[in-house]
Design goal:
Elements: H1 3-11, E1 16-19, H2 26-36, E2 43-46, H3 57-65, E3 70-72, H4 76-86, H5 96-104, H6 108-116, E4 121-123, E5 127-130, H7 146-151, E6 171-174, E7 183-185, E8 188-190, E9 200-206, E10 210-215
Parallel strand pairs: 1-2, 2-3, 5-6, 6-8
Antiparallel strand pairs: 1-9, 4-5, 7-8, 9-10
The structure holds manganese (II) ion.
Length: 224
């Protein structure tokens, strides 16, 4: 075996690709995955909020279910959709959730069961993926509240974002808080670059910590 062969085996080692908040932006999602040249040899992780706000949540969910190397954590929008289904509430006619249900048709229950299987966080040992963040005063992620994991920005009783006070070494990768540029700190990376608001869809590639972004085709929703 030549040196070249062994080198190429090393470069073919598994990557982890973590994808920011998609919110139904299927076109940008495919462009981003193409740009990264994602394959079945990559581990894909979504920071959650695959659904709502954007143009085609149904296609994003179908893609997710057909992608066996993808894992998702629950975002607040995914959770809201799931909770309504668990409570047996039918979406109001004409609303985006009603339209999503109509588009998914007979597969709706299967898709909801699929979302039900998503965890609130993924702890790889080296890094932690969570939708919004964590309360920096609670060191053990297993003791974090689901509400904080899915929605935290500025912790109650504090006056700055959670990651300003987060001092652990473990890298936390999150979404939820749309900003113009990814947030990059030694121990926290925020990937929500507001694709659905006309910003960009961003992914992080580990272990090299490379960020890749795709500009969104349009602003599908106004940021409020
Ligand atoms: Mn969110």
């Amino acid at each position: 075996m030549s040196h070249h062969d062994s080198d190429s085996r090393i470069t073919a080692s598994r990557r982890t690709v973590i994808i920011g908040d998609v919110h139904g932006c299927i076109e940008e999602l495919h462009r981003l995955l193409d740009e990264i040249e994602v394959s079945e040899n990559d581990d894909l992780i979504s920071v959650g909020d695959l659904v709502r706000k954007g143009p085609d949540s149904a296609s994003v969910l179908r893609w997710a279910m057909q992608t066996p190397n993808l894992r998702c954590v629950l975002g607040n929008h995914d959770a809201r959709l799931l909770l309504r289904w668990l409570e047996g509430q039918k979406p109001e006619r004409g609303t985006p959730d009603w339209e999503l249900r109509r588009q998914l048709g007979d597969s709706y229950n299967d898709v909801m069961e699929y979302i039900r299987s998503w965890p609130l966080y993924i702890d790889s040992g080296d890094f932690l993926v969570v939708h919004a963040g964590l309360d920096p005063r609670i060191p053990d992620v297993r003791l974090q509240s689901p509400q904080d994991l899915m929605t935290i920005r500025i912790p109650e009783g504090m006056d700055s974002p959670w990651y300003e006070s987060y001092k652990q070494e473990k890298l936390v990768i999150f979404g939820h808080w749309a900003r113009n540029e990814p947030l990059i700190r030694p121990n926290a990376i925020g990937l929500d670059t507001g694709c659905v608001y006309g910003g960009r869809l961003t992914a992080l590639i580990l272990p090299e910590r490379r960020l890749v972004s795709i500009p969104s085709a349009k602003a599908y929703q106004r940021k409020d």
